[in-house]
């Protein structure tokens, strides 16, 4: 495992790309309404990135054609934007990675379409809490595995399951770098966190079983195997001297 420790100059570049990725998701808020197609949301995100001098890391990645991944309801991740129109009561995740001057910033979040039921609200709330608890494990000298341990412990306590087939990852100079950030891990496992590391934490929490199935039609869209809801939140994290900085947190939540 070759984990890249970023220089001050590199960190500043990653910070800018991370901020723009987050600003893209913020921009999309006003368009999340019943009737809009996911392909239309993707176009809005793509135009916003280009307007701000960035490109989407997903466009052209292993043949992928879109600027975002958009995952409604039972789609766990990697949802391909298409003609699906959002419906009142849907929940939807949008994931975007911006490249600015060669640096990468990666983030995703959930949106409510109109008014959603309490079942969906609780899933999103617990998933966001999983991310928050995981970020508290981000400080120099702690074990990487404690991130996944914290996520799984909280999710299971609330009756949910943690997707194990996809994980977080190093990011910054490339789209995907070492280390892999598992969202279900043994306590005090993995490498030690060091100042200057940058990676994503992006727990995918299912209301039902943890396993996924990938749509054969597009080869990307991963769904829950039981049709139950899934939620995901993601930040790009920098390990600092005394803790962490959430580079994609433009709202000051952390």
Describe the structure concisely.
By secondary structure, the chain is α+β, with helices and mostly antiparallel strands.
* Number of β-strand runs: 15
Structural class: alpha+beta
Biggest sheet record: 4 strands, antiparallel
- Portion of residues within helices: 25-40%
SSE order, as H and E? HHEEEEEHHEEEEEEEEEE
Write down the Rg: 17 Å
Q: If helices are DSSP runs of H or I spanning 4 or more residues, what is the number of helices?
A: 4
Report the β-strand fraction as a percent range.
15-25%
> Domains counted in the coordinates: how many?
1
Mass-distribution shape: globular
CATH class term: Alpha Beta
Which whole number gives the mean pLDDT? Answer: 97
**What is the CATH superfamily label?**
Creatinase/methionine aminopeptidase superfamily
What is the CA–CA distance across the termini?
Answer: 29 Å
Write structural notes for this entry.
It is a single chain. The chain has 254 residues and is α+β, with helices and mostly antiparallel strands. The chain has a single domain (8-246), classed as Creatine Amidinohydrolase, CATH 3.90.230.10. Helix content is 26%, strand content 25%. The chain contains 4 helices and 15 strands. The protein has helices spanning 8-28, 38-51, 118-135, 145-157, and strands at residues 55-56, 69-72, 75-77, 91-100, 103-112, 161-162, 168-170, 177-181, 198-201, 204-206, 212-214, 222-224, 230-232, 235-239, 244-246. The strands form 5 sheets. Strands 1, 2, 4 and 5 form a 4-stranded antiparallel beta sheet that branches. The longest helix is centred in the N-terminal third of the chain and has 21 residues, at 8-28. The radius of gyration is 17 Å and the shape is globular. The chain starts with 7 loop residues before the first helix and ends in an 8-residue tail after the last strand.
